[in-house]
Amino acid sequence: MDYVSLGKSGPSVSALGLGCMGMSGMYGPADRAESIATIHAALEAGITLLDTGDFYGMGHNEMLIGEALKGGRRDRALLSVKFGALRDAAGNWLGYDCRPKAVRNFLAYTLQRLGVDHIDIYRPARLDPDVPIEDTIGAIADLVKAGYVRHVGLSEVGSETIRRAAAVHPIVDLQIEYSLISRGIEDEILPTCRELGIGITAYGVLSRGLISGHWQKGAAGKGDFRAMSPRFQEGNIDRNLALVEALRRIAEGKGVSVAQIAIAWVAAKGKDIVPLVGARRRDRLAEALSSRDVHLSADDLAVIEQSVPKNAAAGARYPEAQLAHMDSER
């Protein structure tokens, strides 16, 4: 495993991170024992960055990771935690709360569920439209001073918000969706982060499995976010899977899998970008880890981007109701 500095002020992290959201029901049922075994396998392989959110499974994901880190594994992991999203008992989304007192409350519960004394990177999941970002970042900065948080991150915010946040406290990374079929950050957000020395932790590198090479039409079942995701809907899915087949031909030519090509493409876009892979099983993790052995030349990148052009995907990356509230989409 290679290691990189997360931004100019952040810690050294593995060049590939593990996103743990899918282990807590967002993509349908997951096997608890296999999830824990996957986290253990990731740590054994040298992955240090584990990403979660306190609202994944309403705390389930944090408790799962806490269990996985028992037995002396805490020191091998860098915990990245998102907070602020509100949900009800039925799992419905209720908005965001990033007031300073809410930040302190969320952090206290997170420490308890994870069974740790500090969080390595703490970040608001989205911009709270009712709270200035300066207030939210200032509250996290106070937690840094108190020793409960090591570094401050951001998630899914635009260039103006990034600049305002960075004026309050050093920001180590922006977590945001980035893949072959989600390249919106290239226009303004990525240049802003590079100007300010802020790293990128890229989630959705396989577009929730859509460009993994494994997705089959109609596979989204009950409780699976993808059943509502525009890119998986009738009228869009066939066009998007055609893009996957174009990518498959390139992958086969190099003797690797579609997923490995897709992950390697993100990694090749800059050493300041750390792909987060959402593996829920050890076999998918092993496939993702092997992407580190895929070396793409400038010619390779050109062929890939010609086969899967920018803005070629059919459908938005989130339902319109969610996109309307995302600062990164403004």
UniProtKB/TrEMBL annotation:
InterPro entries: Aldo-Keto_reductase, NAD(P)_OxRdtase_dom_sf, NADP_OxRdtase_dom. PANTHER family: AFLATOXIN B1 ALDEHYDE REDUCTASE, ALDO-KETO REDUCTASE YAKC [NADP(+)]. This is Aldo/keto reductase. Keywords: Oxidoreductase. Coiled coil: none annotated. Residues 16-306 form the NADP-dependent oxidoreductase domain. Gene3D superfamilies: NADP-dependent oxidoreductase domain (3.20.20.100). It comes from Ensifer adhaerens. Pfam families: Aldo_ket_red. Transmembrane segments: none annotated. The keyword Acetylation does not apply.
